[in-house]
Amino acid sequence: MHVIADLHLHSRFSRAVSREMTIPNLYAWGVKKGIGLLATGDWTHPLWMKEIENTLVETGDGLLQIKDKREGPKFLLSTEISCIFSQNGKGRRVHTLLWVPSLDAARKISQEITKRGGNVMSDGRPILGFTLVQLAELVLTIEPKTLIVPAHIWTPWFSVYGQMGGFESLKEAFGEYEKYIYAVETGLSSSPDMNWRIAELATRSIVSFSDAHSGPKLGREATIFSLPTVSFDNIAKAVKNYSNDQKLPHIDSTIEFYPEEGKYHYTGHRACHIRLTPEEVESKGATCSVCGKPLTQGVMQRVSQLANRAVVATKTSVDGLSQYRDEKHVRPPFVMLVPLVEIIAESINRPVTSPKITPYYDALMKAFGDEFTILMHASIPDIGRVASPEIADGIKKARLGDIVIDPGYDGVFGVVKIWKSEKDKELVSNKGEQIGIF
């Protein structure tokens, strides 16, 4: 069976997260999106853990479900830890996901973090002074089944490969525990093919999740697992099956945000409206030409620095949906999607917050059930009859990748356009001047 999973998100107890991120709302958004397995998020936070215990019940397979609900999304105990420490004379700042198979394991890990001086009450994503080696040792000693997944691994500020506080390799980061790192998360600003260029990731799974801070953002990235049954152990087996052996639990594919739309794709300095490609950094340097300060290194540039193998993604169309995979078909393929509300908004020439989007959205949901079905599988003629020919055409173009993206940089999200007109303007001109947003 196939299950769409989003295993990185946050509760309302994390900073800059919607107050609506409650377990019932996560469940409702999971149904709406078509997600079958959700992260609980933030189980280190005592108040959120109390809500998990009051709202969810363990199912005996390492997962949880809403009490009195046998249907709908299940939950996996997933949390994110922010480790800030010094190693080899450099300040390090790395975010890491922890997946555990039981409430008991989650409680014991949280208690041990507290014993070692960690403040789990400060934030849903606690900031700890632990090294990655210390974190891995702590969680694996308590629960050997814990899955440790470096989060959004290229983000400049808080990631294992990030320029500002990261490392050159997983071995440098995790030491003897490197062998227990079975997967890494792409983050919004990178796609699987960018990660295929790193030799040490050739023996690790590449997973993608939303890092959602609000309900509508769930599923903007996700991983589709192929499993005999949905359980923690089968998720673990699939993650460890990096070669995509179809006879075992495996990752069928991933659903990606267009990496150019991520807010750290290119190198730049938003205060001075400077944005550079890796090639431009090579020729112009990494110092801002306006203020003289260092530019925030983009994911594309950082990948280029660490890349040590050549792997090219090939694009094919499967039932009208573009799919990307490596030439030798060793790694799971991936698709890139545009959120449904963005497609509707552009189709009717309204902002994504417009209430005029709602009737079209509701009609599509009533007809087809969930967003992923609409975005990937529903008949284009049927979509046109239910909504409008323009929306159907927009979904078709998004499926084919027939779109235009103005890439993001230094904390500024890129902008997707399905229809490009002469009146459209770029986020940044070729001269580095801010022009405007679509």
Describe the structure.
The chain has about 450 residues and is α/β, with parallel strands linked by helices. The chain has a domain at about 1-260: Alpha-Beta Barrel (TIM Barrel). About 30% of the residues lie in helices and about 20% in strands. It is built from 14 helices and 19 strands. The strands form six sheets. Strands 1, 2, 5, 6, 7, 8, 11, 12 and 17 form a nine-stranded mixed beta sheet that branches. A two-stranded antiparallel sheet has the order 3-4. Strands 9-10 form a two-stranded parallel sheet. It is globular, with a radius of gyration of 21 Å. The two termini are about 40 Å apart. About 50% of the residues are buried.
Topology:
Blueprint: E1 2-6, H1 23-33, E2 37-39, H2 46-55, E3 56-58, E4 64-66, E5 74-87, E6 90-100, H3 103-115, E7 127-128, H4 132-142, E8 147-150, H5 170-174, E9 183-185, H6 192-195, E10 205-207, E11 222-226, H7 232-240, E12 250-257, E13 267-269, E14 274-276, H8 278-284, H9 299-306, E15 313-318, E16 321-326, E17 334-337, H10 340-347, H11 357-368, H12 371-376, H13 380-386, H14 389-400, E18 404-406, E19 415-417
Parallel strand pairs: 1-2, 2-5, 5-7, 9-10, 12-17
Antiparallel strand pairs: 1-11, 3-4, 5-6, 6-8, 11-12, 13-14, 15-16, 18-19
Helix pairs in contact: 10-14, 13-14
